[in-house]
Every structure is written in structure tokens, then in C-alpha cells.
Amino acid sequence: MKKWKRSTRLVDMTQQLTLQPHRLISLSEFANRYQAAKSSISEDLAILHEVFHQEGYGWLETVSGAAGGVRFIPKTTREKAEEIAERLCRQLESPDRILPGGYLYLSDLLGDSLMVRDIGRIWATVFAEERVDAIMTVETKGIPLAYATAGLLGVPVAIVRRDSRITEGSVVTINTVSGSSRRLGSLSLSRRSLKEGSRVLIVDDFMKAGSTVRGMMDLCREFQAEVAGVGVMAELLAQERLVDQYYSLVTVAEVDERERRIQVLKGNLFSGEAFTWKS
């Protein structure tokens, strides 16, 4: 087996850590891979930790003991998160986004892989210490955000359907009621897509009164699962809210269809002490 140069080793080690976030990798695994002493591996990891931390990419968490090792925790800073939120506000305020009925066009934003990745990193930062076992979202627009977040937390995605499919196998279905129109609907989740007792992070693209999020919370109860948190890309400022505890990246304060005007503000994630950003 070849012996790696240090420069090459650092590049490959970075790749191994960032592609497997939250996975504990032992020093022995690195030492065997690179044919290097554990003391040299420890020095390499110290360099990577310093760079990750200084550049706001995250940091390396060390676990001591015989079964210990190191894991990469992806993070972002409050400053970078605010930049993303402000950029999202500017894009959402374009009058061209207004659709009949006061709806907003979001598909281009959810198709922007860089924007979606950045939002996923924000949720991975906010919920990094919540011991999340799975990400839950409802089809279809929330799926890109869910996978971006799941990839950085190293957990699977459970996709809730509005109509059950034969390819899903046995499903759990609940009825929902829209908070605004009082319209009946249903949400279904395959029994195989979520383990009972899981801690679930709910991620969605847009929340009005919160009936869809509330439905996903009700589905979690059917699986004896615990909701670890809720993160939505955008929320509509509403009088009636079916969800109390959640974080929003931006808030749509006003949609004036007649005047073709949209007002968007940074969400509650940045208000007061809603979330404590660690340096």
C-alpha cells in the first residue's frame, strides 16, 4: 500500500470528512488508509479544524476513548445566513413572482442548487445538536431543501405524499384541514420510510397557516416519532397559525396583487434570541 504525501493526505482527508458529515471516523481508520502514525493524523486534523472554523465551514468534533474518533460538523455563521436571507428577500420581492390568487412563484429558487445548498447548511447549523434521525417533508417543492439538509446532517429523508402510491407499500394516512379555506385533504407516509421512535426534523418551502406542517407533526405521532424542530424557507405573515414552534428564513409580510407589490423581511430565525449562533 502506498504512503501518502502530507499535502495529498490533507486533500483526501478533507474529502472523506466533508462527504460523510456527522459520521465518526476513528484515527485508526485514517492511519491505516494513509499508512501514517496517529500522531501525524492528529496534527493533520488540527490543521483542518482550524481552517474549517476560520472560514465558517464548520468544525471537527473529537470523541475520546477506544471507540472514539473525529466527525465533521457542517456549520455556517450568522453573517452568512443573513446574507442568504437578504438575497432571498430581494429575489422574492420581484413583482413577476405574483401568480393569480396571490400565490408566489418559487420553483426557480428551489431549482437553484447553490441557494438550496446554502439553505440546507443553515438548517444543518440550527438543528446540529438536536440528534436528528430523519428529515421529513411533503411532496414536491420541499424535497430539494430536505435532501440538502439531510446530506449535511447525514440522515435519510421521509417524503410525505398527498396521494398514496402502490409503490410505497403499506402507508399511514391522516386527514388534514387547511387553516384558511378549511378544505379537507390527506397526507400519507410509507411505513417503511420512517422508523418508530425517530427524532424528526420537518423542512418545508412555504408556510401559510401551517396546516401542512401540522399534518406532518400529526403523522410523526402515528409513528411514535418526536419532532426535533421545524424549518421553513418562507412563511406568510398570518393572523392564524397552527404551528407554534418553528424557524423561518424569511417572512412574506405583504402580497398586493393589484399593486403588484411584495414585501419580504428576514424571518424569525434572526429575531431577538430565537436562535443563538455559536462562533
| CATH topology call of the largest domain | Rossmann fold
Spatial strand order of the main sheet: 4-3-7-8-9-10
Main sheet characteristics: 6 strands, mixed
Q: Beta-sheet strand percentage?
A: 25-35%
- The CATH architecture category of the largest domain equals 3-Layer(aba) Sandwich
Describe it:
Belongs to the purine/pyrimidine phosphoribosyltransferase family. PurR subfamily. Homodimer. Residues 114-248 form the Phosphoribosyltransferase domain. This is Pur operon repressor. By secondary structure, this protein is of the alpha/beta class. The chain folds into two domains: 6-74, Arc Repressor Mutant, subunit A, CATH 1.10.10.10; 78-270, Rossmann fold (3-Layer(aba) Sandwich). It has helices spanning 6-18, 27-34, 38-55, 78-92, 107-110, 113-126, 143-153, 211-222, and strands spanning 58-63, 69-74, 134-138, 157-160, 171-177, 184-190, 199-207, 226-236, 247-256, 261-266. A hairpin with a 6-residue loop joins β5 and β6 (184-190). α6 (113-126) crosses α7. The chain is globular and about 65 Å long. The two termini are 40 Å apart. The relative contact order is 0.12. The model has no long low-confidence stretch (mean pLDDT 93).
Write a concise synopsis of the structure shown.
With 279 residues, the chain is α/β, with parallel strands linked by helices. It has helices spanning 6-18, 27-34, 38-55, 78-92, 107-110, 113-126, 143-153, 211-222; strands spanning 58-63, 69-74, 134-138, 157-160, 171-177, 184-190, 199-207, 226-236, 247-256, 261-266.
